[in-house]
Amino acid sequence: MTAATARPADAPAAPLAPPLHFNALLTPHRSLSRKGFFIVMGIVAAVNFTAGAIFMAKGAWPVFGFCGLEVLLVWWAFRANYRAARAHETVQLSDGELRVRRVDAKGRARAFSFQPYWVRLALKENPDKSTHLHLLSHGQALEIASFLSPPERQDFARALEAALAAQKAARPA
Predict the structure, then answer these.
(1) Percentage of the chain with pLDDT > 70?
(2) What angle do CA 111, 115, 121 make, to 5 degrees?
């Protein structure tokens, strides 16, 4: 494997086979459960139906249609949000390879491969408290763990750094 290679589109982007020294699945955080979604949509629909009925009773019947359209738009926004949550990223470290595998919301996978001995982690902290984590090797950089919050990204960076250090220490001279 080369330093940081993106696999061609026709090459499989399958996860690494065991034994793995580090294996992390990173997914976007979604705080609203399916039950919570139905509760929120029920409240939005009830409020809009009530408001639309009041306006209809006063003779402003077109407002009822706009209230229904609002419910539809809120449902569509949640649907788009949940579809985007299907994206994920795996970071795996085996004896001879560090692989980052990204799957987008449509299910398309892309893999990036690094030689673990040469890869470095760079955690950039911005003045606004946001962070960016990059894998660096042979002049190339790849941002990882963008789904995570800044504290989670720092914890992830420490864990991956420890796994890489252990891998380098175990490598025969």
Answers:
(1) 90
(2) 85
Task: Single out the residue of 82, 69, 107 nearest to residue 30, CA to CA.
Answer: 82
Choose between 8 and 57: higher pLDDT.
Answer: 57
pLDDT, tens only, 124-150: 988 988 899 999 998 889 999 988 889
Average pLDDT, the chain: 86
Partners of residue 111 on adjacent β-strands: 101
Transcribe the chain into DSSP letters: --SEEEPPTTS--PPPPSP-SEEEEE-------HHHHHHHHHHHHHHHHHHHHHHHHTT-THHHHHHHHHHHHHHHHHHHHHHHTT-EEEEEE-SS-EEEEEE-TT--EEEEEE-TTT-EEEEEE-TTS-EEEEEEETTEEEEE-TTS-HHHHHHHHHHHHHHHHHHHHHS--
pLDDT at 112: 92
Phi, psi torsion values for 163, nearest 5 degrees: -65, -40
